[in-house]
Amino acid sequence: MEAAAARLKAHPWVPALLPVVILAAAIGLFVALDAPGLDRVGVPQEELAVERTVLRPGEIELHLRNDGADPVRIEQAVVNDGFAAFDQSDEEIGRLRSSDVTIRYPWIEGQAYEVMLITATGATIDHAIDAATESPDAGTGFYGLMALIGLYVGVIPVAIGMLWLPWVRTMSAHWMRFVLAFTVGLLGFLGIDALLEGTELAGQGAEALGGAALVWLGAVAAYLALAGVDGWLSRRQEHTAFLVALGIGLHNLGEGLAIGSAYAIGSLALGAALVVGFALHNTTEGLAIVAPVARSGSVRARTLVLLGLLAGAPAILGAWIGASFFNPSGAAFMLGIGAGAIAQVIVQIWRQMRRDGERGLSPNVAGGLLLGLFVMYATGLLVSV
Predict the structure, then answer these.
(1) 134 lies in a domain?
(2) Angle 374-319-182 (CA atoms, 0-180°, nearest 5)?
């Protein structure tokens, strides 16, 4: 007995593995016996989610994911009430597996189409194409265009907004609290927007992957991760500005995903109005970055450049990803991460305001919060993808 106790003390993790081993053995036996007594009855429940649509001359390609519990076989394809020939990458789509179905159909630019896939059991999967347009080929010019769009809507507006730093430094403590509250209002709107967009995108993806829960999972994970980063960087003067830039960058990554995916399916209204709208909307993000460091003494130009790139450049990456292999569930998770990061940033800025003597919602702070929310709402009306 003493020898056994000594071995357990030397390897304390051994008892922790015992329940895991027993559970694995029980599950293995259950599977090997083909789930005795649990025979499946009734019609299979077939569900498919259309995650992506690619249009080529004479072809409609649908990227599908099995969202149900049973394997699915596609038997027929119907476009606008007429049967169409099709090819598929897999004859049977297993649970959570993906497959591509390519329908041979002479679609016309700008026309709307209703696509219906009929499974082996007679179930139907409907998908609407509002305005058909050819999907762009992913080449050097294509990725260059996505980089240019990301530059216009992410990097340049944020950099312009950071030019307010000298002006912010001249403010009194009273107006500085107003600006910080204004920053919280800006970030709060971005966080709410990310949650709403993420929830909407999650509804377009496979519910079996988590649906809207992916948004909240990403938000909680990001909040906790940034809390740890805050503890690591708490001795650095610029750590709050870094967290603000990181939170905005994660939000702009989700924004880039939306832009890239919209461009890939031809529903992005490229033009001066879009660029102007994003410029006004995102310039205020630059102010949110520099406000926390306005009274921290001199800040190196290199630090400001890096903060600006951290906040704006993810829009370029997001545009590349969104236009190349957009996935609704992945995009919803990323938007959740952006929302969680922004929530942690708001906590940090609020703590800074309390250290400066602000103990409640004074008229000054309340006015800043409301103005920040209103500005982001008003400029957001100019942005449509």
Answers:
(1) no
(2) 20
What is the distance between the alpha carbons of residues 385 and 383, in angstroms, rounded to a whole number?
Answer: 7
pLDDT for position 275: 60
Instruction: Note whether 117 and 63 are within 8 A (CB).
Output: no
Are residues 262 and 169 located together in one domain of the fold? yes
Range of the domain at 54: 48-129
Q: What is the pTM of this model?
A: 0.73
* Structural domains in the chain (count): 3
Predicted confidence (pLDDT) per residue in 146-181, tens digit = 888 888 888 988 898 898 888 888 888 788 888 888
**Domain for residue 98, yes or no?**
yes
Q: How many residues does the chain have?
A: 385
Residue 343: C-alpha distances to residues 94, 96, 192, 353 (Å): 38, 32, 10, 16
Answer yes or no: do 22 and 60 share one domain.
no
Please check whether residue 244 is in contact with residue 304, taking contact to mean a CB–CB distance below 8 angstroms.
Answer: no
Residues 262 and 317 in one domain: yes
Cα–chain center distance at 334: 3
The residues pairing with 48 across neighbouring beta strands, listed in sequence order, are 66
> Do 125 and 116 form a contact (C-beta atoms < 8 A)?
yes
CA distance 369 to 366: 5
CB 329 within 8 A of CB 205: yes
Q: What is the pLDDT of residues 339-349, one digit of tens each?
A: 888 888 788 78
> pLDDT by residue (tens digit) across 83-116?
999 999 988 998 888 899 999 999 998 899 999 9
- 42 within a domain of the structure (yes/no): no
